[in-house]
Write a structure and sequence with these properties.
It contains 5 helices and 5 strands; from the N terminus they run αααββαβαββ. It is α+β, with helices and mostly antiparallel strands. The strands form 2 sheets. The chain has a 3-stranded antiparallel beta sheet with strand order 1-3-5, with no helix packed on it.
């Protein structure tokens, strides 16, 4: 919440070097953090009105999936999701499934998304309000990952021989 207030304060005052320095001193937010938040907000604002999102769930049976509140934590890119999870990472029971949902971008919890992205920038997570109430499941499929290939594929690296 404190970071959110800092951001709002900067927005209302307008960020310039003098004001920025005063906020840095008083509230502890750096110009890099300010720029990171601005970049995330620009990314969220540039999304289409209807977005497709992905998440992994663990259930004993597909009928256990809540069709109304489809969950809060998603990623925009299925490949990023697959690379950030592995089958052995879940504590508890159930089979891993990938949910694909369509959601109106107004369902995004901007504050929670910003907070999570600042803390864990590598996750690129989108957080939906009210546990995803209003989003619609469009696909459910088994989640199959290669637990031994957590760093990517050769296509992810540029080799100069």
């Amino acid at each position: 919440m404190k970071s959110f207030i800092k951001i709002r304060l900067r927005e209302s005052l307008g960020y310039n070097h003098v004001v920025g320095s005063a906020i840095d001193d008083e509230y502890g937010i750096t110009e890099d953090e300010f720029n990171q938040v601005a970049n995330i907000k620009n990314e969220l604002n540039s999304l289409p009105q209807t977005i497709k999102l992905y998440r992994v769930v663990y259930v004993e049976d597909e009928s256990q999936i809540n069709q109304k509140q489809v969950g809060s934590h998603y990623m925009l890119n299925k490949v990023d999701l697959e690379r950030s999870h592995y089958q052995g990472s879940h504590v508890g029971g159930g089979q891993p499934l990938i949910l694909t949902v369509k959601a109106d971008k107004n369902l995004i919890d901007t504050k929670a998304t910003l907070n999570h992205r600042i803390k864990y920038p590598h996750e690129k997570e989108i957080t939906l309000r009210n546990k995803g109430l209003g989003a619609t499941i469009i696909n459910v499929e088994p989640f199959i990952s290669n637990d031994e290939d957590l760093i990517g594929t050769p296509d992810d690296f540029e080799f100069n021989f």
